[in-house]
């Protein structure tokens, strides 16, 4: 942009749109694609400052891209503290994708559970299933300090959608531990039987549960006996991954007697 001749003559059709704001918009898109979120944020602010009042659609698009850049700063944790005010404003966004991401960023950047928890509980009450699952995943990441969410997570084990039940059961285990095992196991095994696509997620949680997942052994063996499992996206790679995870977990839960050949794990 510094090489552009700002005083050079340009046709009217070009000046109508391809101005400094458009250059910053293009740079914003490029930086987002490259994962350079701090530079993307800079160009977003410059674009918004240069946009003419009638360019409402461009302003909405740029604001959304700015949100993308700011939310991506979640990966930087407390180092992105300067973005907190914008992140807070996005926790009430109407966009179903932005709001859960903003709540996750709020927790990661600020680390204030008192501030984040009301938003997380609100997401658990959402009608959008992936928002519920995203909230459950973040609560699982927080672990026992998120115990206030346990009653709502227990209620969600009866949700109509098996994927929501799987995510909430996993969160119950991570937060409540051994006391939640019976309900968690029942939910995970029922979901896996109902929808084989949940198998990778279910087995991953069972693996984290360790010996307490022993009641899952019959279903794990049934899975291995099938010519092909459902698994995530029903792809060959995921099926191989699922077989390996099942064999590893079976070996943990029911180790072979001394001297017996080791089971294949991959």
List keywords for this structure.
266 residues; mainly alpha; 14 helices; 64% helix; 0% strand; elongated
Helix content bin: 55-70%
Rounded to the nearest angstrom, the distance between the terminal CA atoms is 53 Å
The overall strand count is 0
- Shape type: elongated
Low-confidence stretches: none
Give Rg in angstroms: 24 Å
Strand content: under 5%
Largest sheet, strands/sense/barrel: none
The pLDDT mean sits at 83
Structural class: mainly alpha
How many DSSP H or I helices?
14
Helices and strands, in N-to-C order?
HHHHHHHHHHHHHH
Report on this model:
This protein is mainly alpha-helical. It has helices spanning 12-15, 20-34, 37-50, 56-72, 84-90, 98-110, 113-124, 129-142, 150-155, 162-176, 181-194, 199-209, 217-225, 236-253. The protein is elongated. The model has no long low-confidence stretch (mean pLDDT 83).
Tell me the layout of helices and strands:
Layout: H1 12-15, H2 20-34, H3 37-50, H4 56-72, H5 84-90, H6 98-110, H7 113-124, H8 129-142, H9 150-155, H10 162-176, H11 181-194, H12 199-209, H13 217-225, H14 236-253
Helix pairs in contact: 2-3, 2-4, 3-4, 4-6, 5-6, 6-7, 6-8, 7-8, 8-10, 10-11, 10-12, 12-14, 13-14
């Amino acid at each position: 942009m510094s090489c552009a001749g700002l005083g050079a003559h340009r046709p009217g059709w070009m000046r109508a749109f391809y101005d400094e704001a458009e250059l910053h918009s293009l740079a914003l898109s490029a930086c987002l694609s490259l994962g350079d979120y701090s530079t993307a944020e800079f160009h977003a602010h410059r674009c918004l400052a240069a946009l003419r009042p009638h360019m409402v659609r461009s302003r909405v698009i740029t604001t959304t891209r700015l949100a993308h850049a700011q939310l991506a700063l979640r990966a930087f944790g407390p180092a992105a503290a300067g973005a907190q005010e914008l992140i807070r404003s996005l926790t009430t966004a109407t966009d179903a994708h932005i709001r859960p991401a903003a709540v996750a960023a709020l927790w990661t950047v600020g680390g204030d559970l008192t501030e984040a928890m009301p938003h997380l509980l609100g997401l658990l009450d959402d009608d959008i299933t992936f928002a519920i699952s995203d909230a459950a995943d973040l609560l699982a990441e927080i672990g026992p300090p998120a115990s206030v969410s346990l009653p709502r997570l227990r209620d969600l084990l009866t949700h109509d959608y098996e994927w929501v039940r799987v995510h909430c059961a996993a969160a119950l285990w991570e937060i409540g531990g051994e006391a939640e095992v019976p309900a968690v196991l029942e939910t995970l095994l029922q979901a896996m039987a109902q929808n084989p696509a949940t198998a990778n997620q279910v087995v991953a949680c069972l693996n984290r549960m360790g010996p307490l997942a022993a009641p899952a052994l019959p279903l794990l063996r049934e899975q291995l006996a099938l010519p092909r499992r459902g698994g995530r996206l029903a792809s060959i790679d995921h099926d191989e991954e699922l077989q390996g995870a099942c064999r590893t977990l079976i070996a943990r839960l029911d180790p072979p007697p001394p001297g017996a050949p080791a089971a294949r794990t991959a």
